Amino acid sequence: MSFRSDHPVSARSLFFALLVVGLLCRVAFVWFTPAFYAPDEQSHYHYVQHLAEHHSIPVLNSKLGDASNEWEYYQPPLYYALLVPAFQAAQAVFQQPAAIVLVLRVFSILLWLLNVWFGVVLLRRMQIKDELIRVLVLGLVCLLPTYAFVSATINNDNLLATLGGAVLCLMAQRQPAWNTSLALGLVLGLALWTKQSAVVFLPAIALLPVLDASRQRLAWRAAIRHLAIALGLATLMYLPWALRNWRLYGTPTPEYLATDRLMWPSFLYGVASAAHNLAKTFWSVSGLSNDVNYPFPLLGFGVLVLWLVGQQTPAQTEPAVDPANLKHNGPLFCAFLLALGFNLVLVLRFGYLFGMGQGRHLFPLLYPVALVLAMGWRKLPVERLELWATGFWVIYAVSFVLFSLTRFPH
């Protein structure tokens, strides 16, 4: 298989290169990033340690910045419970926290690899056969610098991103059956037990069967049954945790108790600051408090400019086959865009209220983001774009890793 008859480079070869470089970048971050030199990593570590030593879910008693480093104690426990066996095994062998951190970080790399596999399945189920789009999408997921760093640290966002990939795969199946509905409800419930922000999937899951039924692709009875099973099961799974939060904290959203609200000079200034922080931290940040960043986010902003140029570029010739298979995927794209819009609003709101709206909060929907960007980049009038794109992602990620490691304390 080749992209063009004049340059027979297989998509499999390019994807393998992206995957290998992505893995090497993450291994470098795992090994050379000092212990706890990642956002909230020590607080996430303490959560795992508490579960392992006390066999009970901790209760939030401190705020962000407290010397106890326990402000993540409000989080649902699934991610941390999965890490307990690795923590106990590493503690028995090494006993040193720095060594235990390395072991727990490897779990994050495994979650990333699973998410990449979900991406391959997602593109197959969406019947996207355009190899250029496939390489562009998988290139971003393998080598987006911030994701490379986050997925090499201890952070529950990694499990949520992977479960998000699983949710998208189940949505793309498009022929709801009992087992599919149950699986979707189960995975969504697990996502909610990982992080409350998994609610971003609810509007998309609700919209897709409605659109399919309105287009007579799916019977209304089947659509209603699918929604009742999937959303009902997820709600039943999450209900005990919501009731616990209400009993302990008097609110189902205790993350608002973990930090103080910011006061901005003006509403517009606050929104602009939140938007800038979201864009910057999406592309390339690392370090204890995302302190390692510029000038590398500028490259990401440049990529966005190229996407805008691609959107405005008229096609030289109409492709024989719709690259994104919009006739088949139209309702699915609408559902994805609804979830992405909802996610953006929530992250910007979180950034405005607390200054904590970061790009990694978009990673559960990284595949929809990548698909939107890839469809714009594909229109650029560049010969052998797949090679240029692969080279760009490799250089971008590797140079950011090297830059970060030189900035980290030794």
Give Rg in angstroms.
21 Å
- Structural class category: mainly alpha
Distance between the terminal alpha carbons, to the nearest Å? Answer: 46 Å
Q: Counting H and I runs of at least 4 residues, what is the number of helices? A: 15
Mean pLDDT: 91
Globular, elongated, flat, extended or rod-shaped: what is the shape? globular
Main sheet attributes: strand count, strand direction, barrel closure: none
Low confidence ranges: 1-5
As a percent range, the share of strand residues is under 5%
Percentage of residues assigned to helices: 55-70%
Number of discrete domains: 1
Number of separate strands? 0
**SSE succession:** HHHHHHHHHHHHHHH
Structural features:
410 residues; mainly alpha; 66% helix
Walkthrough of the structure:
By secondary structure, this protein is mainly alpha-helical. It has one domain (11-407). 66% of the residues lie in helices and 0% in strands. It is built from 15 helices and no strands. It is globular and about 60 Å long. Residues 1-5 have low confidence and may be disordered.
Give the helix/strand layout.
Elements: H1 11-32, H2 41-54, H3 78-93, H4 97-125, H5 131-143, H6 145-150, H7 157-171, H8 178-192, H9 201-214, H10 220-249, H11 267-283, H12 296-312, H13 326-354, H14 366-377, H15 385-407
Helix pairs in contact: 1-4, 1-5, 1-15, 2-3, 3-4, 4-5, 4-7, 5-14, 5-15, 7-8, 8-10, 9-10, 9-13, 11-12, 11-13, 12-14
Q: What is this entry, summarized?
A:
The chain has 410 residues and is mostly helical. The chain has 15 helices and no strands.
